Amino acid sequence: MCGRLPTDFLEIPWRPTLARRRGGSQSVVRWFAILVLSASAASQQTTKDLSDASLEELSNIQVYSASKHMQSASEAPASVTVVTADEIQKYGYRNLADILRSVPGFYVTYDRDYTFVGVRGFGRLGDWNSRILVLIDGHRINNNVLGQAMIGNEFLVDVDMIERVEIVRGPSSSLYGANAFLAVINVITRTTKQVKDWELSYQTGSFGTNEGRATYGHQFRDLGVLLSGTFYDSQGQTLFFPEFNTPANNNGITSDTDYESYKHILATLTFHGFTLQGLFSTREKIVPTAYFGAVFNDPADLNIDSHQFVNLGYQHSVGKWQLDAHTGYDQARLQGPVPEAPLMPGDPVVLNTFSFRGNWWTGEVKVSRDLFEGNRLTLGSEVRDNLRQDQGELLNPPNVFSPELNRSLITAFYAQDEFAITHRFTLNAGVRYDHYSTFGGTTNPRLALIYRAAGQTTLKMLYGNAFSAPDVYQTSPNFGTFYDDNPKLQPEHIQSLEGRVEQGLGQHFQLSSGVYHNQIDDLISLVSIAADQNFQYQNDGSAQATGMDVELSGRASNGLQGKASFDYVHAYNDTAAHPTLDNSPGPMAKLNVIIPLVDQWLFAGVEGQFLGRRLTLLPGSVGSYQVFNLTLLGHTVGKHLDVAGSVFNVLDKKYFDPGRPEDPENAIQQDGRSLRIKITGRF
């Protein structure tokens, strides 16, 4: 993707907030009763329409990420969800993870350090989000050591600066290469078109949480300028871990070990066809779980992450061709001090710092044109030079960084053709070849047949291949102290087949449903090595996932809108007598309703989520749960001032996420009920 993305899509009023989930024991059926009651109550309101957009226009909102050019979601060769700034604001989403929790087929696991996403039943514990590709305005942000994509509070951009999020489910390596294995998530940030001069925001809430943001945007004739800075600080919770319930470990209770803070700076300059974007993000998080053998309840156990990039893009028409090009430079850092117990009683605690340093340069050129009516050709080439992929251990003393140095080069070529066979049938075919200096080449195709039947019906048949390249951390793990090198590790591969139907139901409802089957081969797993009692990443067998999803969305003329979805997937490992994969929930259900309460200035956003039982790494499981969140949003002073109040986990239910391999806990408790007040002013 090249530079600033086009903005000729359906525009919807902006502004974010926050949302989290919590456990419960109520039935899924009761959610739909809430939806019906909400609709009945809202039908008595005499409000005006929230925007000029009809449901049909909303269902055909323009997306870029599925084909690397703007097209309606119904024409995209994939299952696509778009979450707008208006939804982000009215549902009170706090970060990208909250947004993804609301998306069909997605679920989130939080180990009280980083946040991890599962897609369609596949969310392996020990994965670093390397099987999803996350982009900011088309710029890849997965780092080049862990392949990690940040999605929680560690995400690099304030949600207030998000104009929309495009989520493309399914393999997309035919356009994007590595990491586009299960999904592509493209976060489109706001421009001077959505920011008028000054915007100030402040929020405060439970657990000693405070956040502030200042944003300035202005169009100086041909020069567009946008600058935004955010700070966040949270004291966190007091937590109980039964695994450490001894007097020597404060009876399993942590204190001052859930602290988190971050800072974001985003700058975007536009001039004619050029876009220059820079980002600075740094985060500090104390880890309460005593992972990697750390001393329990020691505030010195923390991670300091940072990521910076600068990206220059250019868009221009050359004859009948549309040229898009960009080049960028990134660097990512991690410092993770781990206090380790002394070998001899009475000796001081040993502080070892496990670190990585990644630097990489990227460049991409893409050209596209309509060869004739109903035929669009796209050609592109991409290069990624991993200048630095270091891992090491900073010992204290003697404060010496002893890195394991790595470097690699990736080159790629791709082509895609969209051909209208008839006015009802469209064939989309694409292929990409990637060559890695470490393991060689891989070719990945994608094929889609889209049929627009009479009326409001669209049928899609989708086939795709993708790969997940082994990361440096998997081939030569350095800060995993009990992991052995495996330089011969090969990529994972996935083959996916999906059928979808998208059906308009009158003027107010839209139904989308699909069935799919994913086959994953050369699965990368952490395997115990009997010879030395260590672990090693190996290509260990295969896995399959078969599932279905259905989503019903609706929008009334008085502004009431909502959506309800249900997913079910069976994911299992072929090499172990077909057991269900760990951290695979099976059933998921989600409900979102926006209710206009008083004309166009007071709204309620109601969210409900259900997640099925998930197996943990050790024998056992974490139970299913239901979570309800509520946000009240008021526009005042002619929409120059917004006041929002949110309650997350309204029912204060206790629920758990599975622990990861490095965690001593098999299940990790999540947040209880929490509150937040947020004020945003525009000047």
Give an overview of the whole structure.
- By secondary structure, the chain is mainly beta.
- It is 6% helix and 53% strand.
- It is built from 6 helices and 39 strands.
- The strands form 7 sheets. It has a 22-stranded antiparallel beta barrel. It has a 5-stranded mixed beta sheet with strand order 3-8-9-6-7.
- A hairpin with a 3-residue loop joins strand 25 (492-505) and strand 26 (509-521).
- The longest helix has 15 residues, at 28-42.
- The chain is globular.
- The chain starts with 27 loop residues before the first helix and ends with a strand.
- The model is unreliable at 7-52 (pLDDT under 50).
Describe this protein with a few key phrases:
5-stranded mixed beta sheet; mainly beta; 683 residues; 6% helix
